[in-house]
Write a structure and sequence with these properties.
The structure is a single chain. The chain is mainly α. It contains 3 helices and no strands. Helix 1 packs antiparallel against helix 3. The relative contact order is 0.12. The model has no long low-confidence stretch (mean pLDDT 89).
């Protein structure tokens, strides 16, 4: 039995980076959706910041879904 340690290390490194990136994207999405309007936004101003945070959160969730779909594609194909 011969183990290719360089290939194993490469797989480990790529898996680690992909996992950290996916968790970070999902965390940013949760943070973006959890933002509440501040006192200035309740008076009718500052809603743009909240909308930008929600849009960013949806982009993060979309990138997470794309990464999961690509992983499934790699497994199946």
């Amino acid at each position: 039995m011969n183990i290719d340690w360089a290939a194993l290390g490469t797989v480990f490194g790529v898996s680690l980076v992909a996992t950290v990136a996916l968790v970070t994207l999902f965390t940013l999405g949760i943070v973006g959706l959890s933002r509440q309007p501040g006192p200035a936004a309740q008076g009718g101003r500052g809603g743009g910041s909240l909308m930008l945070a929600r849009a960013g959160a949806y982009v993060c969730f979309g990138l997470c879904a794309a990464a999961v779909a690509y992983g499934i594609y790699l497994i199946v194909a």
